[in-house]
Amino acid sequence: MPQSDVTREREGSPWTGLWAVVAKEMADHLTSVRMLILEVLILLTATGTVYAATQNIRNTGNDKFIFLKLFTTSQDPIPAFVGFLGFLVPLTAIALAFDAVNGEFNQRTLSRVLAQPIYRDALLFGKFLAGLFTLALVLTTIWLLIIGLGILRLGIPPSGEEVARGLWFLLLTIFYGGIWLALAMVFSIVFRQPATAALASIAVWLFFTVFWGIISDLLAQTIHPIRIGLPEEQLAQMQLALALTRISPNTLYLEAIIATLNPTIRSLGFVLPMQLQGALLGAPLPLGQSLMLSWPNLTGLVAATILLFALGYVLFQRQEVRA
Amino acid sequence: MSAEVILETKNLTKLYGDFVAVDGLNLTVRRGEVFGLLGPNGAGKTTTILMLMGLTEPTDGEVRVLDLDPVRQPLSVKARVGYLPERVGFYDNLTARENLTYIARLNGLKRQEAHERVAETLAQIGLEHAADRRVGTFSRGMRQRLGVADVLIKRPQLIIMDEPTQGLDPEAAREFLDIIRRLKETGITILLSSHLLYQVQAVCDRVGLFHRGQMVLEGTVPELARQVLGGAYRIRLEAHGDDLSAVLREIPGVLAVHHDAPAIYDLEAESDLRAEAAAAVVRAGGRLFSLNIEESSLDEVYAHYFQQYQREQEEVEHAAV
């Protein structure tokens, strides 16, 4: 009997039950104390930084992209909102996913849920989507709040381009959260203790924020040492160091939002003086060009998310159900 | 025994690395019966159940559940078969109703339908008073009953329960056995695993004894008793007088007589020979004080089997030396 072809095929869609999982997980997230704490934290940051930024903008005054400044202007001693997002987003994403799978194990609910007519795919992807939607919901709310606050404090409405750039910034931020969500989920599959998974996720984030910059400099120095002191040598070393730092999602994200929120940024790498010939310094790039500039960063963020999710997917499929 | 076969395994085998968890299992369960899987911890009961549900893939052999293949058609199997895992867990921060509604939604019920089904099952299992309490506040017995409600949501044809009465206090266990009997009356087939023999005997039509991944004994409790204990009827009589062993042994149908305590005789017989034994005692001039037939309990079968097994093991070891 030619059975080998038939046995490989599973009946039904792997996404059966997906939306039931998403709905339940989102309800859990939105009512959990954990999320409430983070929401309050983000809200405080947003109002604090935006208040300081509007103060600063009112004094210094005249810019074509005043609304974008809301996100990026800092007023000593308060850093800019985007600076805060760099660590609040990973923190929130990790908090949403670090007990996604091991929590089910520990509550002994996994076998009960998987005994229902759904595939494991639906459970894992449903949990991921629920996390991403929750993150998107929180970030969008805060984004709207900031814009609203800006209109009140500055007394002018944002231009179409500012809104477009702001939305792009929102999208980048959500996908930046996606990476940490997927990472925390992988750890929640690998480690049986939620605390271990949370700690491991935070360790990875800390590694990329604090140590990766130092390490990529050191690596660049060893791989492309400066022997004679030629400019070519220096350039090669700097370019390698920059390429290495871009492995860090933090760098990818910060570069992308700088390019998006600051239209005068024309390049995310090094620009040699001869490349600047004929350029109008200080003139803003059109929206399309700025998006092009941050496009590779966005694809990088999305690709990393997909890779991490795929890793978690493979690990989860191979895991035994019995505790 | 002509009822439709509802669950069948042929030569079912599961290896974890080198460890043989289930070794060439042949199991048949028919519609409407309650089948008990017995065996010590680690005998492969849970692994077998996971394979029946399609939650673990068999290394070798065949499984048919409701004429479906759990490996190829896991969704159809899981839509028709209810599974109550060992020490079932719930989302403690959700209420009983919310927990069940989630399961109903996973089974593809629409919102309105799900609410109705949940209310109905909660009433069926006698938990409607606690429907809106968080499951975290539930007692062990209530959780186990909620577990049954959870399984009934999908209106299963077959329910598989893994150690359902473990950790329950006697009262809760008794209630739980009642629930099983009620389910049986509605025509649902039940496969349960347990090592609490008294309870298995109380509800199961047939039992299978599992040992080292193999089904070593299978049948009704009296059948097993005949296989393992030899005589199926054990008669205990208390009679004073001279030693009556010889007299009793002469009754046709008596296989053995044990006279371990003064005035107490234990007979192993092929049939119920109480009347004959009484007559023999009186004829021999003995004074009969009591006469009882002991139904062989699963406990005895179990203990006997493992004693025998151990003796054989030791003999094999001696032979090897």
Report on this structure.
The complex is a heterodimer of chains A (323) and B (321). Chain A has 323 residues and is mostly helical. Chain A has one domain. Helix content of chain A is 73%, strand content 0%. The two termini of chain A are 37 Å apart. Mean pLDDT of chain A is 88; it is low at 1-7. With 321 residues, chain B is α/β, with parallel strands linked by helices. Chain B folds into 2 domains: 5-219, P-loop containing nucleotide triphosphate hydrolases (Rossmann fold, 3-Layer(aba) Sandwich); 233-295, Alpha-Beta Plaits (2-Layer Sandwich), CATH 3.30.70. Chain B has 11 helices and 13 strands. Chain B has helices at 45-52, 74-80, 96-106, 111-124, 140-152, 170-185, 197-203, 221-229, 245-249, 274-283, 298-320, and strands at residues 5-16, 19-30, 34-38, 60-65, 81-84, 158-162, 189-194, 206-211, 214-219, 233-240, 254-258, 264-269, 287-295. In chain B, the strands form 3 sheets. Chain B has a 6-stranded mixed β-sheet, sandwiched between helices. In chain B, strands 11-12-10-13 form a 4-stranded antiparallel β-sheet. A 3-stranded antiparallel β-sheet of chain B has the order 2-1-4, covered by helices on one side. The longest helix of chain B is centred in the last third of the chain and has 23 residues, at 298-320. The two termini of chain B are 47 Å apart. The model of chain B has no long low-confidence stretch (mean pLDDT 89). The A-B interface holds A 6-7, 9-12, 16-17, 20-21, 23-24, 28, 107-109, 111-119, 320-322 and B 46-47, 50, 53, 55-56, 71-76, 78-79, 82-83, 85, 87-93, 102-103, 105-108, 147, 150, 154.
